Amino acid sequence: MNEQLDAYCAHLRNERQVSEHTRLGYRRDLEKVLTYCAKQQIEQWSDLQLQHVRQLVARLHHDGQSSASLARLLSAVRGLYRYLIREGLSQHDPAAGLAPPKGERRLPKTLDTDRALQLLDGGVDDTFIARRDQAMLELFYSSGLRLSELIQLDRVHLDLSGGLVQVLGKGNKTRILPVGRKAREALQAWLKVRGLGAPSDDALFISRQGRRISPRAVQQRLKLAGERELGQHLHPHMLRHSFASHVLESSQDLRAVQEMLGHADISTTQIYTHLDFQHLASVYDSAHPRAKRNKGTDS
After folding, report:
1. Total structural domains in the chain?
2. Per-residue pLDDT of the chain (299 residues; tens, 9 = 90+)
3. Which of 155, 175, 182, 263 is catalytic?
4. Domain-located, residue 249
5. How far from each other are the two terminal CA atoms of the chain, in whole angstroms?
6. Catalytic residue flag (residue 61)
7. Under DSSP, is residue 128 helix (H, G, I), strand (E, B) or coil?
8. Is the four-CA dihedral 104, 171, 153, 256 of positive or negative sign?
9. Which of 234, 265, 286 is at the close of a domain?
10. Is 170 a catalytic residue?
11. Considering 11, 211, 235, 237, which one is annotated as catalytic?
12. Which residue in the list 115, 146, 175, 235 is annotated as catalytic?
């Protein structure tokens, strides 16, 4: 079984040309299956059956493996068996049709309104980096952009007089989003100093060397801003989540938020209704004279 696993990993590297990171991840997952097979005295990959894989997944889930990790393991098993079946080393895929246990849906982390204002309303130095970072922060929060959408922006996509920005989202779908007053002001201030970076193209946000800013650089700059202004970790999607939560909290218009976020399915957007309910429940608990729902019931 080890030899066939080695051959499969060589196939991933040489024929499939998957990344080293992906290949090592598959190997680690499949070694868990090997360990299970050794304990069950299963000596051939062809002897592994659906009930075995189901039992392994149940054990790993009981031991704390996340649903996402188990989904990756099942994907690794299915990939291995596609290879084994092609090579005539197995007649079946024991993971076919098997889904991982459903994990608890985690609510996205957001900043409340006061924390968002604390982040954005601090003083800004009149320098290339400071103006650029402030413009990125404001645009993330103003328009709910994904990181990939922000770094793809060119100046031509921005209409400051109309307060609009055109972004290219998932599936190469274009959408037009509003840009708030504070974000427009920050972008105008940034565009005044952008030329100091000797831009190599029309990218809206550039590095000091004049090249389009990288995703990693944006993440690092937001991380530093979060530590400096809030004393906490900050990442681009937290600002997107905060935008969605705050707009929904004020407007109660789920469809509009769906369109602005670029979600194909409204069920993806509905996660923010849970965040909004949490806020309302918190207000109720603190304000209603006969609330105290979490203190026990009246007898």
Report:
1. 2
2. 888 888 888 888 888 887 888 888 889 989 998 898 999 898 888 888 999 988 988 888 888 878 888 888 988 899 888 988 988 988 889 888 887 777 555 667 888 889 999 999 988 899 999 999 999 999 999 999 999 999 999 999 999 999 999 999 887 889 999 999 999 999 999 999 999 988 989 999 999 999 999 999 999 999 999 999 999 999 999 999 998 888 877 777 788 888 888 887 777 777 766 655 555 555 556 655 555 544 444 43
3. 263
4. no
5. 64
6. no
7. helix
8. negative
9. 234
10. yes
11. 237
12. 146
Same domain, 119 and 60: no
Let me know if 157 is a catalytic residue. no
158 by DSSP, 3-state: which? strand
Contact between residue 260 and residue 142 where contact means Cβ atoms under 8 Å apart: no
Q: Which residue range forms the structural domain that includes residue 175? A: 113-234
263 flagged as catalytic: yes
Active-site residue, from 23, 131, 212, 240 = 240
- Give the helix ranges, DSSP H, for the chain: 2-11, 20-39, 50-62, 67-86, 113-120, 128-143, 147-151, 181-194, 215-229, 236-251, 254-261, 266-269, 271-287
Which of 69, 86, 103 terminates a domain? The answer is 86
User: Does the active-site annotation cover 92?
Assistant: no
Among 28, 54, 86, 170, the active-site one is: 170
Supply the CATH number for residue 25's domain. Answer: 1.10.150.130
Q: How many CB atoms lie within 10 A of CB 62?
A: 9
Same-domain check for residues 25 and 137:
no
Going across the sheet that includes 174-178, the strands are: 158-159, 164-168, 174-178
Neighbours of 71 (CB within 10 A): 15
Are residues 224 and 124 both part of a single domain? yes
